[in-house]
Amino acid sequence: MKLKKFDLNLFILFEEIYRVRNLTQVAKNLHLTQPTISNALARMRSALDDQLFVSTTEGMIPTPLAEDIISQVREALYLMELSVRRDKEFDPQSCNYTFRLSMMDLAALLITPKLLNQLSADAPNISIDNHYRNKNDLVDCMRNGEVDLAIEEPLVVDSDICHAPLVKQSYVCIVRAGHPIGNNRLTMEKYLGMKHIQVSRSSAGHSHIDKALNDIGHERSIVFQTDNLATALAAVKDTDFGLTLPWNWKDAEVKTYPVPFDYAQRSLHLYWHQRSDNDPKLIWFKEKFVNVCESLSSEIKANGKETK
What digits encode the pLDDT tens for the residues 257-307? Predict the structure, then answer.
């Protein structure tokens, strides 16, 4: 295939089909008719001599060739967009872009409302797509353009992945309002005597807090483990169980206490691919994101003082 005979707009369509996996939605996103999308896909298939996407009950599934070329297509589209925008001042009011994030439940619950409030005023056409990627897949997702920004605990990454510390984690134990502990201090004896709920994406369930306890010769009783934070919070509000989280949680239906033991404090980091360093829209978005996190960190510190 000779590139000069290939309509480069088809690469935009290719990336959109790969991301959305639904031709009707692709047509809506690109403001085109569905027959136009179908005809363009047929042209791509003919030019590349491959089906590219196979229609199934679960959507348009990419073929091995489509999987092989998606990273290069996204890289090329990104570079073309950057070259067009390089000499233009970024205008958030007119920017129409979906930032693809990877945040775990707790970070998303705390950060997203504040971030959306800022974006609705400063950049009304910008949207956010947050889907958490596990640590094993995250770096590849940033490299192939599936993730613009990620919040994660420190990772060992290659030189093409940039990162910066974002928020320090300060662990608290959450119990329901009206819990027998009341306004008393949460002692080690009370903490260990309590049954615990654990939020973990690992079936092993051995958390940073459990390691800190084991290091001083203690072990807590975990009676319920889930990978869903909303489920854990709902269970806490209807039981006398405790839930230990790395950020303070302000809710009229719960009460928080600092954990009664020392632990190695860790920070969440913000991650992005180095190719985005000169991207005006991502530079702007990172600044907004960091500002929201700094504001949240100040609130967490203030709430932490209230619980002591």
Answer: 999 999 877 778 899 988 887 788 888 999 888 888 888 777 666 555 554
Name the pTM for this structure.
Answer: 0.65
- For the record, the structure tokens of 54 come out as 């196979």
All structural domains of the chain, each given as residue ranges with its CATH number in brackets, are: 3-85 (1.10.10.10), 98-160+272-307 (3.40.190.10), 172-258 (3.40.190.10)
Distance in angstroms (rounded) separating the CA atoms of residues 296 and 113? 11
Among 289, 240, 253, residue whose Cα is nearest residue 118: 289
Instruction: Give tens-digit pLDDT for 192-221.
Output: 999 999 998 776 656 889 999 999 999 999
> Is the Cβ–Cβ distance between 53 and 61 less than 8 Å?
yes
Q: Which two tokens stand for residue 178?
A: 């009206």
Q: For residue 46, give every residue at least 6 positions away whose Cβ sits within 8 Å of its Cβ, in sequence order, or none.
A: none
Tell me the two tokens of residue 44: 């791509």
Token pair for 119: 């974006």
Taking CA atoms, 117 is separated from 64, 160, 220, in Å, by 41, 32, 39
Q: How many Å from the N-terminal Cα to the C-terminal Cα in the chain?
A: 69
Compute the distance between CA of residue 146 and CA of residue 67 in angstroms, rounded to an integer: 13
Strand 127-130 with 59-62, pairing: unpaired
